[in-house]
Design goal:
Blueprint (H helix, E strand, L loop, with lengths): L3 E7 L6 H15 L3 E7 L6 H11 L3 E5 L6 H11 L4 E4 L11 H9 L5 E5 L7 H18 L11 E4 H4 L12 H7 L5 E5 L15 H19 L3 H32 L11 H30 L16
Helix pairs in contact: 5-8, 9-10
Pfam family, one: Glycos_transf_2
GO molecular function, one term: undecaprenyl-phosphate 4-deoxy-4-formamido-L-arabinose transferase activity
Keywords: Cell membrane, Glycosyltransferase, Lipopolysaccharide biosynthesis, Membrane, Transferase, Transmembrane, Transmembrane helix
């Protein structure tokens, strides 16, 4: 088993790949670390796949995976995680902006300091303000919601214990929230290391400003799914109870007001003529619907829960 698995998602980075591979080899051989490099070609339309194939022919430590089309960075990382055999798994981008020189120290922090995950922090970034300012806002909101004190959630340079990557599943654009996903799966020792950030040498960035908008939506999604995946009734039931009780309280008040007015000989409007009646009716219906949604979600959860859904840290004398 290699000490380090390096996973590199690739999307149209043919120019940088030979230089990146040579840099990785130099660092690993200098430090005497055993390693494997897993390139995941995410449906590149340029010559990236041919370059990766050539690298794999020259170096037995190189593994190559190719998607038939572009699925996104999360899919590339997820497949890479499934193939990684190293004690420590390191992810980095293919554009030469992440330095392989950081890998030995990331490895040490995982193996010696006992971190489950160490995220890079690009304190000094070589990016335009159109990227750095939204990024700071995005990271600030993510820190507040997740409770994880990281400066740069979106940094591609991260290191993981092997057991972390084998027990998490990422999809869509959830690669930004791997620390949060890891925390919800019981891997709470999360560290941070300041890393170098180099200017882009080849090509252009593949991400636009829309990633920050999508990022906030993904944050809400991953927070909700990880919090209520096992007990959806806790969410839908609470919201349903609040809605139903609000509607019920308004209804009781309207009936009380009607009866009280009649007893005192006052002229009162019909209950059905009052706007509050329709508000109460909507609240009651929504409350019942939320309850039914919660019950259905609980039934689906109970039917889809498998033993593999529960992560086991260690086992002693548990052979069948």
């Amino acid at each position: 088993m290699p000490q380090i698995s390096i996973i590199i998602p690739v999307y149209e980075e043919e120019e940088s790949l030979p230089e990146l591979q040579a840099w990785i080899v130099k660092v690993m051989e200098t430090k005497g670390l055993s390693y494997e490099v897993i390139y995941v070609d995410d449906g590149s339309k340029d010559n990236s796949w041919q370059v990766i194939k050539d690298l794999s022919l020259r170096d037995a430590n190189v593994k190559a995976i190719r998607f038939i089309r572009n699925y996104g960075k999360s899919a590339a990382l997820n497949v890479g995680f499934s193939k990684a055999a190293g004690e420590v798994v390191v992810t980095m981008d293919a554009d030469l902006q992440d330095s392989p020189e950081e890998i030995p120290e990331l490895y040490r922090m995982i193996t010696e300091e006992g971190f489950d995950l160490v995220s890079g922090w690009k304190r000094k970034r070589h990016d335009p303000m159109s990227k750095t300012i939204p990024s700071r806002l995005f990271n600030g909101v993510t820190r507040f919601i997740s409770g994880i004190k990281l400066h740069d959630f979106n940094c591609g340079l991260k290191a993981y214990s092997n057991k972390v990557v084998k027990n998490i599943d990422i999809y869509g654009e959830m690669h930004r929230y791997i620390p949060l996903i890891a925390k919800w799966n019981g891997f709470g020792k999360i560290g941070e290391k300041e890393v170098a950030h180099s200017p882009r040498k080849y090509g252009t960035t593949k991400f636009g400003i829309e990633r920050f908008v999508n990022g906030f939506l993904d944050l809400i999604s991953v927070s909700f799914v990880n919090r209520y995946r096992k007990n959806p009734m806790h969410f839908f039931g609470s919201m349903g109870s609040l809605s139903f009780m609000t509607g019920f309280a308004i209804t009781v008040w309207l009936i009380y007001e009607k009866i009280s007015g009649l007893r005192n000989g006052l002229h009162v409007r019909e209950i059905t003529d009052q706007p509050l009646f329709f508000l109460a009716l909507v609240a009651l219906i929504v409350g019942v619907q939320l309850f039914l949604t919660g019950f259905m979600a609980e039934m689906m959860t109970s039917n889809s829960t498998h033993k593999s859904d529960y992560n086991i840290s260690d086992e002693i004398n548990c052979e069948a």
